[in-house]
Automatic annotation (TrEMBL), chain A:
Ranges in coiled-coil conformation: none
Residues that span the membrane, as ranges: none
Pfam family, one: TPR_16
Region (Disordered): 1-62
Residue ranges, compositional bias (Low complexity): 40-49
InterPro entries (UniProt xref): NPG1-like (IPR043376), TPR-like_helical_dom_sf (IPR011990), TPR_rpt (IPR019734)
Alphabetized SMART domains for the sequence: TPR (SM00028)
Superkingdom of the source species: Eukaryota
Listed name of the protein: Calmodulin-binding protein MPCBP
TrEMBL record, chain B:
Coiled-coil annotated spans: none
Lineage of the organism: Eukaryota, Viridiplantae, Streptophyta, Embryophyta, Tracheophyta
The family this protein is said to belong to: Belongs to the Hyccin family.
Cross-referenced Pfam families: Hyccin (PF09790)
Protein name per Swiss-Prot or TrEMBL: Hyccin
Signal peptide: none
One GO BP: phosphatidylinositol phosphate biosynthetic process
Swiss-Prot/TrEMBL keywords: Cell membrane, Cytoplasm, Membrane
Subcellular location, record wording: Cell membrane; Cytoplasm, Cytosol
GO CC annotation terms, alphabetical: cytosol; plasma membrane
Main subcellular localisation: membrane
């Protein structure tokens, strides 16, 4: 009977076909019986009364039951399915309403579960009564599943979910040991799979998110014998639900897990786990490629800053999925976000090769941006940025100001390492021009104003720099610390120390204790600049307390604050104190501070230089020189050491003057605003009798002295 | 916090509703006045919500003597969970207006008091010095959802631990440099309750996102931007672009992602969220901020993908082919019946 129905379904039903007598005769009878019912339903739904004629249903049902010797539930199931199939959802629903699932289950339950067990022990024995009741079960369960679908189509998600859940509950009570893979009829398996997949979606539609969550886990953690594609879809939807559901969920509790297994503790972990599993399935060829999985994973991992992990997954994607330039760009973004700038740039170089996509503006911008943070790469960055500007002009203006901005940054960076004055001033002018042009296109980007301010300050156009600094603070509402610091430093360069202090104090007011380090350092230096050593010591003491407290609080965290550029290191504080004490001729105190600094950082050019200073003031020239050279061997481009060596050698006699000049010009090439270097260079010229040159140097030194900030603008 | 004692302390949702009626000055919308469940009305009633958000957006709101801010503060501090949800419902407008105005450094003690109260709640909930972390799974270890060869000696492979949200330090005042962090943490709080939030609250949020980003969505036409908007001068207050450091950007993106891809069925919200995502993408492009670009680019791409439908029930094709035959038989039976 049920077997017959199945045959009528597809005619290709595999498995142990029922060998009941009615089966052979059924197709005709079935066909004859069914249309009558479908007519009943069709006429009902089509009639003006829009009411199912119950008499018709019953009539059809009874004729089916007689014709196919089906029971009540099975007959209703068949009728309902037909209605559903014809799109008469309401009619189908009315037919399905008559089915008592519980009664049906109780009938199937003993026979099926017993047979399941007996099958396990005796696989070869074919059992027709088992397959018969499986067909019956399949029919009824499908009916309830279709009932659920019908309800969903009528917008009754909650009821639909309850019906769908009852299908799964029924399956679980029939197959108490999970669904065995080999012996379940195909149709039944299909109904089970579809219901498993449907249920969480229905709960979601009904707004019952906790139930949705539970049903996702039930779907994935129980034995439903789902095929790979179905399981993949459920995993993906679950991951999406976890990522974006906005539902606070409790983690899965699994006491039975083996040791060392990963049990997610929150939504995001569970979502990432599922997405990674999905990707792996694809690598293993178990599912088709789904680009949304990678996008979801990208979203999740970039939110928690794990772009290097993301890069690994992107690299594992087999060729042929992403165009290679796109893959390179994505990877470059990942590596740049993870501060692997060199790797990122190499990938972009491949992508921007003339044979690939040399005009990809996003890649050009990224490449230029990476270059803008490094002196040696600045020149290369200028090239990328220029190409980006050109691109932006030809395509859309949206990104032109961005391109001009990075171009300005790269030019400015390049100007710092220019080999000649002439080239430097050219680059500086050009940098300002680009930044100006960028601002004229986009007046609302405070970052642009800030970079402009820095550039003006570096070129000692302090008036303009001051204007930019104020504008930046206005545009950001004083919420960005570096804006306050720029303003304070510019004021200090204008020798307006008390105003700089007012600004620093205002900034301290707007800054939480924990982030006050750089401001306190500026305050200490402002005190020194005003020749208030005792207050400076006090300021340093406050700073030291803060830094040490931070070390205690964050010391244990691995990826903690130490690399944070906005934090002052304890080393720096001792170093500053050492310099302060030595300027006050408190040699012993200075030495103690230096020892402390050395204990924190053994090899440091700054410490060696300070040590040299100490020797020098105590007339231990050889020791001082040795210390300075040590500093240079630590850091080849350590400007203060070069200047000190120059100054020291100059005192040793005329035969050293060429060497001295060498050191000093070298220092000036690296840091053209170093007034001490200009001063000593002037002395060399004077000694050599080049008075005009000497005068120029002295003038430069004096002008720089009048515009020297308490701290280099580059520290911002 | 406002200093003078509140007119009536708020202990329950009913108190809150009564107090709100006094503040809004007019009669409450009829369904709200008659409600059995004042907390649900406060959370969900659209008319009441638009009255409150209208006041929050109004000129001069958020000052130290703003009674509505006072109400939000008291209602949240009453420690009734349902009432707290009703307050959180207004976080988008509160944060939106506050951030836009804070840049101009107007006195906003009322807004700040509410935000700080919410922040303090977030700090207490999280625990002092606790970061919100995520352990990244390593597929070499088995998990509930997959099997793996159990590593030799049963030693699990190491996990990377990522910080989703750094520890929250207690803040008693709104310092400018911590503003983004505080508002960001309040948005994280809102994010945790998104499933309870009504649609209009999320719509408000997406609207403010677009304003915060200060960029133009390409959907709006590329030529309109950049020039100062003449309409702004005439009409209502123009919500302006605000600094979006990562600590604010990240929770914003998470909420937008929910609006875009969460289990909502509102196309209107999805469209608005897609717009917000795009604006945020262009904002990230402005500074070539790699993590922000990655996250928002994915959102924009996902917004353009079509969601896979739930499979329909399949019926054996044989039966469909038989349809004509069935129809014929049906006609046959009908005629015999008649």
């Amino acid at each position: 009977m049920a077997a017959a129905a199945a045959e009528w379904d597809s005619g290709s039903e595999a498995g142990p076909t029922g060998d009941r007598p009615s089966a052979a005769a059924s197709p005709v009878k079935g066909n004859a019986a069914l249309p009558e019912e479908s007519d009943a339903g069709a006429s009902a739904s089509g009639s003006s009364e829009a009411k199912v004629d119950d008499g018709n249903i019953q009539e059809a049902e009874s004729s089916l039951r007689e014709g196919l010797s089906l029971n009540y539930e099975e007959a209703r199931a068949l009728l309902g399915r037909l209605e559903y199939q014809r799109g008469n959802v309401e009619a189908a629903l009315r037919v399905f309403d008559g089915i008592d699932l519980q009664a049906a289950i109780q009938r199937f339950q003993p026979s099926l579960s017993e047979k399941t067990l007996s099958k396990r022990s005796n696989k070869l024995r074919s059992d027709s009564s088992n397959s018969g009741s499986q067909h019956a079960a399949s029919l009824v369960l499908e009916a309830i599943y279709l009932k659920s679908m019908s309800l969903q189509k009528l917008g009754k998600a909650m009821e639909a979910a309850k019906q769908c859940k009852s299908v799964l509950d029924a399956v679980e009570s029939i197959f108490q040991c999970g669904i065995p893979g080999v012996m379940v009829e195909q149709k039944l398996q299909e109904t089970v799979s579809k219901s498993v997949e449907l249920l969480p979606e229905l709960w979601k539609q009904a707004g019952a998110y906790q139930e949705a969550l539970a049903s996702y886990r039930r779907a994935l953690l129980s034995q439903w014998n789902l095929d790979d594609e179905c399981c993949t879809r459920i995993q993906k939807r679950f991951a999406v639900f976890l990522l974006y559901g906005g539902v606070e969920v409790s983690p899965p509790s699994l006491g039975s897990q083996t040791e060392g297994s990963f049990v997610p503790r929150n939504n995001l972990e569970e979502a990432i786990l599922l997405l990674m599993i999905l990707l792996k399935k694809w690598f293993l060829g178990k599912t088709h490629w789904d680009s949304s999985v990678m996008e979801h994973l990208t979203f999740a991992l970039s939110l928690c800053g794990q772009t290097s992990v993301l890069a690994k997954h992107l690299e594992e994607v087999l060729p042929g999925i992403y165009p290679r330039t796109e893959r390179w760009y994505s990877l470059a973004l990942c590596y740049f976000a993870a501060s692997h700038n060199e790797v990122a740039l190499n990938l972009l170089k491949k992508s921007l090769n003339k044979n690939e996509s040399p005009n990809d503006i996003m890649a050009l911008l990224l490449a230029a941006k990476i270059c803008s943070s490094s002196y040696p790469l600045a020149s290369e960055g200028v090239d990328y940025a220029r190409r980006a500007v050109k691109d932006a002009e030809s395509s859309d203006g949206h990104l032109k100001s961005v391109a001009l901005h990075v171009l300005g940054s790269c030019l400015a960076k390049k100007s710092r390492v220019a080999s000649s004055d002439h080239q430097r001033s050219l680059l500086q002018t050009e940098a300002l021009k680009s930044l100006n042009e960028a601002i004229s296109l986009d007046r609302r980007n405070p970052e642009l104003i800030f970079d402009m301010g820095i550039e003006y300050a570096e070129q000692r156009n302090l008036h303009a720099a001051l204007k930019c600094a104020k504008e930046f603070i206005d545009a950001t509402g004083g919420s960005v610390s570096k804006g306050w610091r720029l303003l304070s430093l510019v004021l200090s360069a204008q020798q307006r120390y008390s105003e700089a202090e007012v600004v620093t104090d205002a900034a301290l007011d707007e800054t939480a204790k924990w982030e006050q380090g750089p401001l306190l350092r500026i305050r200490a230096k402002l005190k020194i600049a005003q020749s208030l050593p005792m207050e400076a010591v006090e300021a340093y003491r406050t700073l030291l307390a803060l830094v040490q407290a931070q070390r205690k609080a964050y010391g244990s965290i691995k990826n903690g604050a130490e690399e944070d550029e906005d934090k002052v290191s304890e080393f720096e504080v001792w170093q500053g104190l050492a310099n302060l004490y030595s300027s006050l001729s408190y040699w012993r105190d200075a030495e103690i501070c230096l020892q402390k600094a050395k204990a924190l950082k053994t090899y440091s050019a700054t410490t060696d230089h300070a040590e040299g200073n100490l020797h020098e003031v105590r007339e231990k020239i050889q020791d001082a020189l040795a210390a300075y050279f040590n500093a240079l061997s630590m850091e080849v481009e350590h400007v203060p050491s070069k200047v000190s060596i120059g100054a020291l050698l100059a005192k040793k006699g005329p035969k050293y003057l060429p060497v001295v000049r060498c050191f000093l010009s070298d220092a000036l090439r690296l840091e053209p605003t170093n007034r001490m270097a200009w001063f000593y260079l002037g002395k060399v010229h004077k000694h050599d009798g080049r008075l005009a040159d000497a005068a120029d140097c002295f003038q430069a030194a004096s002008m720089l002295e009048d515009s020297d900030p308490v701290e280099s603008f580059r520290s911002l | 916090m406002p200093n003078d004692a509140p007119p009536q302390p708020i202990h329950s949702a009913k108190d809150a509703l009564d107090a709100l009626a006094g503040i809004l000055g007019g009669a409450l919308p009829a369904p709200v006045a008659a409600t059995e469940d004042p907390a649900a009305a406060l959370l969900n009633d659209p008319d009441l919500a638009s009255a409150v958000t209208g006041r929050l957006r109004g000129a001069g709101s958020g000052a130290g003597n703003d009674t509505l801010c006072r109400w939000l503060y008291d209602a949240f501090r009453a420690n009734v969970p349902e009432l707290q949800l009703a307050v959180l419902r207004f976080v988008p407008t509160l944060a939106g207006v506050y951030m836009c105005r804070a840049v101009s450094r107007k006195p906003l003690a009322g807004f700040e008091a509410v935000l700080l109260a919410l922040y303090a709640h977030a700090v207490a909930q999280r625990g002092a010095g606790q970061a919100e972390t995520v352990s990244l799974p390593n597929l070499a270890n088995p998990s509930p959802y997959h099997d793996a060869k159990v590593p030799p000696k049963g030693k699990p492979a190491d996990l990377d631990v990522a910080v989703l949200s750094p520890p929250l330090e207690p803040h008693g005042t709104m310092r400018a440099t911590r503003r983004a962090r505080i508002v960001g943490a309040v948005l994280e709080l809102y994010h945790g309750k998104l499933a309870h939030m009504p649609l209009s609250s999320k719509m408000d949020f997406c609207e403010f996102c677009v304003a915060w980003a200060g960029t133009q969505s390409k959907l709006d036409g590329a030529d309109r931007p950049r020039l100062p908007d003449a309409a702004a001068a005439a009409g209502a207050e123009k919500w302006r672009r605000v600094p979006l450091p990562w600590e604010l950007f990240q929770p914003v993106v998470r909420i937008v992602a929910h609006c875009l891809l969460g289990p909502t069925r509102s196309d209107e919200l999805k469209a608005q969220a897609a717009r917000a995502a795009e604006c945020l993408y262009w904002r990230a492009a402005e500074t070539v901020d790699a993590p922000a670009l990655l996250a928002t680019r994915s959102l924009v791409r996902l917004s353009q993908m079509v969601e896979e439908p739930i499979p329909e029930p399949s019926f054996p094709s044989g039966a469909i082919e038989n349809m004509a035959e069935l129809e014929a038989m049906k006609a046959n039976i009908l005629s015999t019946k008649n």
